[in-house]
């Protein structure tokens, strides 16, 4: 047993079992440790090892593979202890900051560490609801916490991955919402786990940003998330830019049309054109980054989807501001009544159009800035990121 009274224990004088590259950068050991299994799997292995050691209940009939697995896990722990010692030493000597030692900026873009939540997740009242929904609803494989929100309409944005699910996503979403208290509604995105895994293999702007183990709050372990191929970064970027440009191409025309109709005094057609500016800009962002967009023309639904990327865009129309909600409703009505020639029983004042021009221009600017930063950051983030610093043209 280690003599803790020794100032310098003798084991410190033993040579490291780490390789030279691992001694130079002990973060490599952490990466190797979590390649072995997810957090929950490693916890379970450690518990089984400890329980068997303390109780002396190692089964005598372990086969060769089981014995090998136990030894391999012990060696991983041994290397992990050495790595943690090195990391602590670097931290104590103020040689370790946000980025692992040896990591350099690439193309002038900083590595961005995963944004820490303001409070411990376990102290948040929605934690139990997340776990209960994952355990109780058939077909739930993983639940990712994308972001806690300080909003009146959504307390958090959650990504649910399903496995062998046969129910419509709308039905699954209703089941999920039933587990959350009315005062803590959540913004839900549901995708098949196979779709996400296949996308990660080839590279994906959105899933690579958010599908990290530190964001998993429930894991049934039906599937394992693969690591993306680094060689596909440029192709993913080019594909996304092409999609964005193709969808966004109609926006300048609608913006010019809105200005023309405003000058002519046709406020309803001006509002319709501004709706199209907003919709196509939002659609371009969501399809190019996330791979899909809502099957609707309601801007509220598009803005809700952007909360999985940033809160900046959704903040243009504040969810708790009555005038902002009224203006958003004007845009929605202008599309429905203009597109389908429904009786024009609504009013759009010149003051409303002036404000809407400012709002939609701000929205368009934030969308382009968000997309630009997501493209710049892709392949250069050591961890997942949520917020983006908006670049204004």
From TrEMBL:
Residue ranges occupied by any HEPN domain in the UniProt entry: 248-363
Any single Pfam family the record assigns to this protein: HEPN
Source superkingdom: Bacteria
Database matches in InterPro entries: HEPN_dom
Name under which the protein is recorded: HEPN domain-containing protein
Originating species: Chitinophaga eiseniae
